[in-house]
Amino acid sequence: REALRTLDNMGILECKQGSGNYLHGTLGRGFSDALSMHILMDTVQQDEVLQMKCSLEASAFVGVVTHGMEHSDLEEMARLLERMENAPATAAEADEQFHRNLIRWDGNAMFACLAEAISDALGDTMYCRVQGEKRKQLNVCHREILLALQNRDIQLGMKAIGAHYQLIEDALCKGRELRYAENISWRTGGLPGYRG
Asked: What is the pTM of this model?
């Protein structure tokens, strides 16, 4: 029973009284719960969590560009971008799907699991916290990410992803310094123009 309870707490198993035990396909819930607790207890800062998400996304971007993607995938990203720019009621959902797709299309299941857990741990969508002119700048970043995917331009993609997460960090953490460039330069050869 203790082992089942531990697996349930880790998010591997779901125990339903009177129904049975069900295996989950991911470890995301357990990681998300643990990460949420660390954020709540202030042992992990939100900007550190954003650095992790930025690093995951940058790494996934390189993988997607290196291995290529289907034309239909690019069309889907363009539709999501259109929703972000022109349909405010569904913009946050479109943003979430845009980033989820980018990480998923790399094919690294661990990246996808961690990115999902990070998004869950941060609560409401990061996109919602960026308002006004900064929201427009965020959408410019999305457009540049899409352009970089279309042209298989790693440098432009890294620049756009870094700028995207910098805008979110500014909105969430009110100016705390980031180290995005330090965290992902091993994969990209450095990010031009970012604070770090």
From this structure: 0.74
